[in-house]
Amino acid sequence: MLLCGLAGLLLLVAAVVLLTGPLPGATAARDDYRSARPCPAGAGRDEGDCLRDRQATVVEAGAPGESWRQIYRRLSYTTGGHRGEVRLRGGGPVLSAAEPGDRITLTSWRGEVRAVTSAGVREETAAAPTRTPGALAATALALLIAAGMFCWCAYWSARRSRFSRLASPWQLVVPVVACALLAATVFVVGLFGPGLTEVLVFTAVATAVTATAATAVVLLTGRRRTAGSTRSADADSVEIAPERSAEQRCVPVSLSGDVPYDLHGFDYLVIGPGLLAVTTDPTGRVARRPVPPDLEAVRVRPPLRTDPRPPPHHTHLVVECRDGDTPVLIAADRHDIPWILGALRSGA
Q1: At a CB cut-off of 8 Å and minimum separation 6, what does 126 contact?
Q2: Domain 49-129 is in which class?
Q3: What is the DSSP secondary-structure string of 221-275?
Q4: What are the residue boundaries of the structural domains of the chain, listed by start?
Q5: Could you tell me what percent of the chain has a pLDDT over 90?
């Protein structure tokens, strides 16, 4: 609970820093670039806010390259006896038609080449500040969504967890999965291209779709649990039909209880005709410790927060058993539960 709250607070601070620092700066740079005018004749190099053109000759076009956020193509050139290169996003008209020896015009702004023009066709380079706000906005929005997810986990664990004893209640699982998918989608989409407006529109649409899907899941879950409560006195119970195994099986389990066969490392249950034992051997051939044949299965349910030992996986189910008056819990994969029930004495 404390870790979730702390993680949410840190992510929120990171999102606010992005929204109040780099994002406004990148947006301002984009607007300044769009409004920049060509440098006047005889302007010095210190006048960096104007667009400065210079002629160059293509040396090589289309060499692939890759950075942490995008794949691009290199365009190498020479100008004034010096060789340089620019990064183009690929597939543009200039890069597609460029050949070695072609004359091009390089447009610089604030000391970097921002555009290349060839035969009257202009193409922005990867350094042009036209899409940067979109990537920053997507990162900030993804951090905000993740912060909300962690804050909800902390709030629910502190204030609402008394309403469910389940180890993985839907009140946590559904929002966490929905927020994680939404944050990852927004981040990836913003990282690979769209501008600020597109990112905001996509985030709004994706949030609406995700909220609708999560609401549908919650309603279906609630209806199923309500229907289950009419069949059983305990809505947490899971109805699974037992199956008797005609051959020996060894299934991974987590057994807990104040019984002599609850031993450290004995994480497998050997099942077969007239055979029920725990073992440390995944094949079930050696190191067996017998389990009483009168061990009684009471019910199958999801894991609870009050269980003495967490299950190996959150998708596992728990078989509540009784060895005389002693409660015994066997956690196992859902697919192995029928064989376990078939080997135990039914308490129904």
Answers
A1: 67, 70, 72, 86, 87, 88, 89
A2: mainly beta
A3: HHHHHHHHHHHSSSTT---------SS-EEEEEEEEESSTT--TT--EEEEETTE
A4: 2-16+132-231, 49-129, 249-346
A5: 30
Distance of alpha carbon 100 from alpha carbon 232, whole angstroms: 79
Alpha-carbon span 221 to 173, nearest angstrom:
12
Name the DSSP letter for residue 163. Answer: G
* Res 156 pLDDT > 70: yes
- The whole-number average pLDDT for the span 183-200 is 79
Is the pLDDT at 234 greater than 50? The verdict is: no
Identical topology for domains 49-129 and 249-346: no
Buried b (16+ CB within 10 A) or exposed e, 145-161: bbbbbbbbbbebbeeeb
Question: Given a cut of 70, is residue 217 above it in pLDDT?
Answer: yes
- Architecture of the 249-346 domain: Roll (2.30)
Encoded tokens for 282: 């995944």
Burial of 70 (0-12, 13-18, 19+ CB in 10 A): middle
pTM: 0.57
| pLDDT tens for each residue of 88-141 | 876 678 888 888 999 999 999 988 999 999 988 999 888 888 766 777 888 899
Give the HSE-up count for residue 124: Cα atoms under 13 Å, Cβ half-sphere: 10
Return the number of other C-beta atoms located less than 10 Å from residue 221's C-beta. 15
CA distance 236 to 233: 9
Can you read off the two tokens belonging to residue 78?
A: 């020479």
